[in-house]
Amino acid sequence: MATGRTHRPATRSRGIPEATVARLPLYLRALTALSERSVPTVSSEELAAAAGVNSAKLRKDFSYLGSYGTRGVGYDVEYLVYQISRELGLTQDWPIVMVGIGNLGAALANYGGFASRGFRVAALIDADPAMVGKPVAGIAVQFIDDLERIIDENGVSIGVIATPAGAAQQVCDRLVAAGVTSILNFAPTVLSVPDGVDVRKVDLSIELQILAFHEQRKAGEENGAPAPAAAAPVAPPVAARTAAAPAAPADAPGDGRNGPDGDMPAVMPA
């Protein structure tokens, strides 16, 4: 079976939009479930509902693959599984290295879905000498000093980073220098990479913060509609302004509530 460096998916050369590429795994997951139930065909509406998108978007996405279905019948499930798998490059073996075998890294190593989707964990790597040799998910952890050799021997082009944030960029640089051109980053930091290297970031804390925002909004709606914004104050006539109380001396300390313009705080709360 070919390895990850012998072939690259043709999605870019064929002009498939990135948004469509991001939805292809959703379609593949839904189609795989249908295939496991021996469902031969599926309509665009049924498949769209299973994938969580609207049917018009699904049909547009499939048009980039050259698959238009059959009126009154729908799409052939097995053929679509093959077609999307081929487009995503999943008809070949993709060896990956995972760096950082702490709690998160160990959990990822034990995830059973990699192999079934065409990804073989070639090596687990950590910088802690105490971890070296310990089996995780049936694979002995190797020392970070051997990173470049491991990548070269296994023909790795995809790396997974699950290190602390402070170590992630250095690990990224070493992966790229060794020939890795795609990185899945679980570290809570933004990585800098050269052109030609793709990075996908997964930050669970950010996703939870977004959910917290929606929960707060729903709680506010349940407790009543938010108060309407106050109307802008109407400026008093010129005469009224000149008759106002005397201004404080120039060197009088402010009360901390007004900004330099005297109308609003200089720094609004975040």
Write the layout of secondary structure elements.
Elements (H helix, E strand, L loop, with lengths): L17 H19 L4 E2 L1 H8 L3 H10 L10 E2 H12 L5 E6 L3 H7 L3 H4 L2 E8 L8 E2 L2 E5 L3 H8 L3 E4 L3 H13 L4 E4 L12 E4 L2 H19 L15 H5 L28
Parallel strand pairs: 3-4, 3-7, 4-6, 7-8, 8-9
Antiparallel strand pairs: 1-2, 5-6
Helix pairs in contact: 1-2, 1-4, 2-3
Task: Provide structural commentary.
With 270 residues, the chain is of the alpha/beta class. Among the domains are: 18-88, Winged helix-like DNA-binding domain superfamily/Winged helix DNA-binding domain (Arc Repressor Mutant, subunit A, Orthogonal Bundle), CATH 1.10.10; 94-205, NAD(P)-binding Rossmann-like Domain (Rossmann fold, 3-Layer(aba) Sandwich), CATH 3.40.50. Helices cover 39% and strands 14% of the residues. The chain contains ten helices and nine strands. It has a seven-stranded mixed sheet with strand order 5-6-4-3-7-8-9. Helix 1 (18-36) packs across helix 2 (44-51), helix 1 (18-36) crosses helix 4 (77-88) and helix 2 crosses helix 3 (55-64). The protein starts with 17 loop residues before the first helix and ends in a 28-residue tail after the last helix. The relative contact order is 0.08. The model is unreliable at 6-13 and 237-270 (pLDDT under 50).
